[in-house]
Amino acid sequence: MPFETDIxxxxxxxxxxxxxxEPPVDLDAVRLERLDRIRxxxxxxGLPAALFLDQIxxxxxxxxxxxxxxxxxxxxxxxxxxxxxxxxxxDYANLPHLAEDLxxxxxxxxxxxxxxxxxxxxAEERAxxxxxxxxxxxxxxxxxxxxxxxxxxxxxxxxALAAKGVEVVEGESVAEQARAVKSPQELxxxxxxxxxxxxxxxDMWRAFEPGITENALWAKLHEANxxxxxxxxxxRLLSAxxxxxxxxxECSMRRIEKGEVMSFDTDLIGPYGYCADISRxxxxxxxxxxxxxxxxxxxxxxxxxxxxAILKPGKTFREVSMEAFDVGEDFLSNRYxxxxxxxxxxxxxxxxxxxxxxxxxxxxxxxxxxxTLCVESYIGREGGKEGVKLEEQVLITESGVERLxxxxxxxxxx
Length: 414
Known about the structure:
The protein has a six-stranded mixed beta sheet, sandwiched between helices. A five-stranded antiparallel beta sheet has the order 14-13-15-16-17. A three-stranded antiparallel beta sheet has the order 7-10-11, with helices on one face. Helix content is about 35%, strand content about 20%. The protein has 13 helices and 17 strands. Helix 5 crosses helix 6 and helix 8 packs across helix 9 (about 215-225). It is of the alpha+beta class. It is globular, with a radius of gyration of 23 Å.
């Protein structure tokens, strides 16, 4: 089903959670710019086309949404992007109203799904139907090149494409590199997501009293995010007292006690699909922190401030790693997995490792203006009672770095 792509005579159409609201920028302009970045990356690599099944990448390429979390479980939706040709959405079922007026989509098709739940013993047959369509698109728009960049696809899908003469090549990096630099329009949408996230955090603070369960406090973040047009939250990383050390315990039915540290990481997909990824640690019930708690917070703040201060365009990932804050021997074993990571529609490239991990796990690259990053800190002694988790979202500018998140870093909101 071909789609009309002339957008001059109509305003940008919103879909999903922010429908009936007033966007801060021209949505069609940002949509087309994102799609162009994917095509530019394909051309830079000499690749004729990409097929995206990761719902973050399908969203980036088209801005079409359809049960994003559900479709992340299954190969139910995909987007074919030709470097010199159409962008075709293969949607879950035949629901073209979900993509009406999106200028990124040249053609709409229902995807012949072949995941086991829906296809059962007919999975190979269904996969062949999908491969037939993709092979035909490659024949028409590949210029004789049969290489197709794919971000993720099951063995069944890859085998079906290979049987049709399509060569599957790695495609996750195509999308990650395209997504790495944000336009001013994207930044406006990200700021809207951060504003919603920080309002949701304020609701959490108002409810943060001794006796509330971790789950009930986390629910305040969820409720406000949905109410303000956000979409989902990727994790449940909130814990208090002894559950804060080591990190990565998700929230539970445990009641938070007076005088305990409560740490959380939002991982929030907010309005327009952009991620607001900030972390804070608060002290339950007011009062002064203990000497140990004050030391944890001071170290975490020092790590955040130091690592933000060393960021600037032109700096390599290795340089950032080697110049980063030294957390100290007592805290090294519990260090957060990355110092800094990219952020956009979700966590994304790059992931900058600690100096101790760089040779074994790290990779190099260069910071450039327009990158949005999250600067991480987790400070908790090995065998210690509590830990403090902090995280700030920042933008690499032409001259240095700009903070995008604004909530106070201390044990209280004021």
